[in-house]
Amino acid sequence: MTKLIQTAIQMRDMARAPYSNYKVGAAVETIDGKIVGGCNVENASYPLSNCAEQTALFTAIAAGHSKFKGLAVSTENGGSPCGACRQVIWELCGNIPVLICDENELVSETTSAALLPKPFDESKLK
Ligand code: THU
User: Which residue's CA lies nearest to atom 7 of ligand 1?
Assistant: First the structure.
């Protein structure tokens, strides 16, 4: 198992999900091979909750990383990134492999482009 997948799976243990009980872990791999993890962090005011993928990406950005070559996400049942996360992944990573995992292993592989067809992005703002 790659370190990217392993980290995403392990990050589920860090999740704060008292409302949904749906723990999500994620990890991104930087262009120079560093792995940065994240988890979902829920709030009693539900919309203020943060998804695992966004936690991982924002943590990586805050640590000074800006180019990414892969992302893995782990849930109990192999769930795919939500729509908001697809937009954030596209914005910050462009087209990269996205590895979908359950609580034990990789279950499918896709790309950020396949997850977000016809994206809205900076190219529309010029
Ligand atoms: N969640 C994520 O962390 N990532 C996704 O892509 C889908 C949903 C979280 C948000 C919330 O804490 C829980 O899963 C249930 O929706």
Answer: 82
CATH number of the structural domain 2-125? 3.40.140.10
Distance 70 CA to ligand 1 centre (A): 19
Q: Encode pLDDT of 56-83 as tens digits.
A: 999 999 999 999 999 999 999 999 999 9
Q: Which atom of ligand 1 is found nearest the CA of 51? A: 3
Q: Identify the helix (H) or strand (E) that includes residue 26.
A: strand 25-30
pTM of the model: 0.97
Task: Provide the residue ranges of all domains of the chain, joining segments of one domain with +.
Answer: 2-125
The yes-or-no answer on residue 53 being catalytic is yes
